[in-house]
Design brief:
It is a single chain. The chain is mainly beta and 796 residues long. It has 4 domains: 2-25 and 225-318, Sandwich (Immunoglobulin-like), CATH 2.60.40; 32-216, Jelly Rolls, CATH 2.60.120; 328-595, Metallo-dependent phosphatases (Purple Acid Phosphatase, chain A, domain 2, 4-Layer Sandwich), CATH 3.60.21; 612-771, Galactose-binding domain-like (Jelly Rolls, Sandwich), CATH 2.60.120.260. Helix content is 9%, strand content 34%. It contains 8 helices and 50 strands. Strands 17, 18, 19, 20, 21, 22, 23 and 24 form an 8-stranded antiparallel sheet that branches. Strand 19 (253-259) and strand 20 (262-273) form a beta hairpin. Helix 7 packs parallel to helix 8. The longest helix has 17 residues, at 453-469. It is elongated, with a radius of gyration of 31 Å.
């Protein structure tokens, strides 16, 4: 932490926010700071008044004449003033006004604000001059908060509540109009901030002395970076994390972060996303940077850049504690995204929580405010990224709900594009698992990978393997449709209950978090199984994240049930897990604590690392000229062959090979495996006897990735074991030449893939063996004229 403080202390201050130093002359979209007394047009009773506490000693004042508060803005107001400035199209700006209420009376503290070219985030005209539409800035932030002297406020009402962003339809000159809502209001400065004051006021709400230097928003930079969203944190582990952000501009992206050894840079991959794809009204580029080599349970200051220019303010991330250790807290919520006042209030409360990460149980956004329709890029931008200001500092891991993923929105194209999720599930990013401190999270899918029975079976098989292998003190399941719910709209999903319930009980899932019904319910501990070795499971519905609520009843399983807006906060260490349900007022209305240290359930025995024997002829994934050749002497009656076409031997493997085949299998992390292939060379010729071999998740003994599919790194198996040794018929060989080759390890336990790609044509392969014991030091058979056929095992 001391190093972090020193790092922050030496960061350059750019435009008033903590940031890394940027090249001379470069700046982001310009800040707009306007002095009210310099208004180009003043109408009605507004008058310039001298005030030593105002900017340049003067402000604009609408004297209190006892006129009642107006219900709405006027298209042709009697009392108004206008100022002009420069803004960027499609950039979210936060509106702030520094003002004072005559007599410090709350009846003199608000005004309507309009613009010449303003829009909502989807490009619809909003708050336009010449209409009755306006946004309101009220100096007093809540009923009874009071006013005192000069103060800053935005266009939101309520402590911790921020108002809607202001967008503009086109780059260039804009006009802001302030018209009277109630007389007696004195206006000093007007700020439109795209970055510096996007999430924090320029000064105090009362007795403020902050006066900013005027700036009209014009950017003089040759390189201007316009942030669309982010950064947000994905794929959290104890040693790495992925930072994602998007800007209107293309370029070279990177993340600069501080370690004890100094500032490091993580390069970002990038891809262009068009307006035609998203419907947002503009193209953008999404950047993804993976920060590696981090230390567990450590805070790091970081900042994303594009073309060397800061793309967002500096922020702080936290890595997870090492698996099975430490104390963590996380937030869970669901059924949230319609942009409601309740969603925004809960989002503000969550931002005040010192949680490590947040999980979402689905229906992140809807298609309409009526909670109907499909999630889309526009919905995620408006009702997720624009609402949760805490995303730069809390890791986020979601599951898809029935509005996030359905056939009518491409089975969740926007969801899968915007979020960068772990890919250790059999269908990447649909379901996955990860460890965070003492908790094993298994994130399941009740939509695309569940509603189809074939995919459901595949998911359940993966889930059973995943849960059977974890050694974590706590196992938490996250998914959308609730197996136990007293909600009047949907109720219990009996298919989900039948599928997941037995697995949860058998493999010690402590807590199930789901949504779908809009409200809150906690069950008593439930065990349907009659096997006393199975576990009790607590099921929690946390669907009150902001969408319109549903009525909730009670059932025989109900401990607490409530139709209310809420989220849950969970704290866990190796002994205790405590869940608090937090309401819209920030108060806890339900608490449940579980302890495992007094009488811990016996963990399932660790799985032995079994022998893996694969028949190449059974591969269903092959490309190029590989084909299955029938042969009674081969395992399974056929082998994978590639005829000799006279092609030269390749010098290196390809990241995207033309000729390859793949097989799937299960392996245990951290176990050394010996690789063996049984093969034959066409015409018993040494120029036809070798291949490259790669894996999906292979590492060396120190955990460094090697021989990975999608790279040029591979290990070579050559049937002839020395120069002049020769070959004849079938024979076994490992990945050494003249000696035993290096063993292979796997980074995670569970499903893996092996890829064999062409090194020289004319080679045929019938069996692939990965042995942790039986054949670790000795071959399964002969190097020539072999007849050994092993029994298949370890495959998927």
């Amino acid at each position: 932490m001391l190093m972090l403080k020193r790092f922050i202390a030496v960061l350059a201050v750019v435009a008033g926010v903590v940031a890394f130093e940027t090249p001379a002359g470069a700046q982001t979209a310009g800040e707009v700071v306007l002095r009210a007394a310099a208004a180009q047009a003043i109408g009605g009773a507004w008058t310039v008044t001298s005030d030593p506490g105002a900017s340049n000693g003067a402000a604009l004042w609408l004297p209190d004449a006892g006129v009642a508060k107006l219900a709405s803005a006027s298209p042709s107001p009697a009392n108004y003033f206008d100022l002009t400035f420069t803004a960027r199209a499609g950039v979210p700006y936060r509106l702030w006004i520094r003002g004072r209420a005559q007599g410090d009376l709350y009846t003199n503290d608000s005004a309507f604000v309009q613009f010449s070219g303003s829009t909502s985030s989807d490009g619809t005209p909003a708050f336009r001059i010449g209409t009755t539409g306006a946004t309101v800035v009220s100096l007093e932030d809540c009923n009874g908060c009071g006013v005192s002297g000069w103060g800053w406020n935005d266009n939101g009402y309520g402590v911790g509540v921020v108002g809607p962003f202001i967008y503009f339809a086109a780059d260039g000159t804009q006009t802001v109009r302030v018209q009277g809502r109630e007389d007696g209001f004195i206006v000093d400065e007007i700020v439109l901030s795209p970055q510096k004051y996007l999430n924090a006021a320029p000064g105090a709400a009362k007795q403020d002395t902050t006066i900013l230097a005027p700036a009209d928003g014009t950017s003089t930079s040759a390189t201007t970076i316009t942030r669309v969203r982010g950064p947000y944190l994905q794929r959290p582990t104890d040693r790495s994390i992925v930072v994602v952000w998007a800007t209107r501009e293309a370029g070279t992206g990177d993340v600069r972060y501080q370690t004890p050894g100094g500032t490091l840079t993580a390069p970002a991959t990038s891809r262009a996303v068009t307006n035609a794809q998203t419907g947002l009204g503009y193209d953008y580029v999404q950047y993804e940077a993976t920060l590696t080599g981090l230390s567990a349970a450590t805070a790091y200051a970081y900042q994303p850049f594009v073309n060397g220019v800061a793309a967002a303010p500096a922020a702080t991330l936290h890595t997870a504690p090492a698996a099975g250790t430490g104390s963590i807290s996380f937030l869970a919520f669901g059924d949230s995204g319609i942009g409601s006042a309740e969603q925004r209030q809960l989002g503000s409360l969550m931002g005040n929580e010192s949680a490590d990460l947040a999980v979402h149980v689905g229906d992140i956004v809807y298609g309409t405010t009526a909670t109907t329709g499909d999630a889309s890029y526009v919905g995620y931008q408006n009702w997720f990224f624009d609402i949760y200001s805490w995303l730069p500092s809390k890791s986020f891991t979601p599951t898809e709900g029935n509005h996030d993923s359905r056939p009518t929105n491409g089975d969740g194209i926007a969801y899968r594009d915007l979020f960068v999720l772990p890919d250790n599930g059999a269908i990447p990013e649909r379901y996955y698992s990860y460890d965070y401190g003492p908790v094993h999270f298994i994130v399941l899918d009740t939509e695309y990978a569940f509603q189809d029975l074939t995919r459901r079976g595949q998911q359940l098989s993966w889930a059973e393997t995943d849960l059977s292998l974890t050694r974590q003190p706590w196992r938490v399941a996250v998914f959308h449709r609730s197996p136990y719910s007293s909600g009047a709209e949907h109720g219990s999903d009996l298919d989900v209950r039948a599928a997941f319930g037995p697995l949860f009980e058998r493999y010690g899932v402590t807590l199930s978090l789901s949504g779908h019904d809009h409200g809150y319910e906690r069950s008593i501990p439930i065990r349907v199984s009659t096997n006393t070795a199975d576990s009790f499971v607590t099921y929690v519905v946390t669907g009150g994240g902001g969408a319109a609520l549903y009525p909730f009843a009670t059932n025989s399983w109900t401990a607490v049930s409530a139709s209310r807006f809420e989220y849950v906060r969970v704290k866990a260490d190796t002994c205790t897990l405590t869940l608090d349900a937090v309401g819209l007022d920030g108060a806890v209305f339900d608490t449940n604590t579980q302890s495992r240290c007094s009488a811990p359930p016996p963990p399932p025995p660790p799985p032995p690392a079994g022998e893996v024997v694969l028949y190449a002829g059974s591969s269903t994934t092959k490309a190029g000229t590989w084909f299955v050749q029938a042969d009674a002497t081969a395992a399974g009656g056929g082998y994978m062959a590639q005829l000799d076409a006279g092609a030269p031997k390749l010098a290196a493997a390809s990241a995207s090979p033309a000729n390859y085949f793949e097989l799937s299998f299960n392996a245990v992390a951290g176990v050394p495996y010996r690789l063996w292939l049984r093969g034959r060379a066409q015409n018993d010729t040494w120029t036809n006897d070798s291949a490259f071999v790669q894996f999906s998740n292979s590492v060396n003994a120190s955990g460094t990735a090697m021989w990975r599919i999608g790279t040029t790194d591979a290990t070579v198996v050559s049937l002839e074991d020395c120069s002049g040794c020769g070959e004849q018929g079938w024979g076994w060989q490992d990945n050494g030449y003249g000696v035993l080759g290096p063993v292979v390890y796997f980074a995670t336990t569970g499903p893996q893939r092996v890829r064999v790609q062409t090194r020289e044509d004319g080679y045929g392969i019938d069996q692939i063996v990965l042995s942790p014991a039986k054949y670790l030091s000795a071959s399964p058979g002969q190097q020539r004229n072999d007849a050994t056929i092993l029994t298949q095992s370890g495959g998927q």
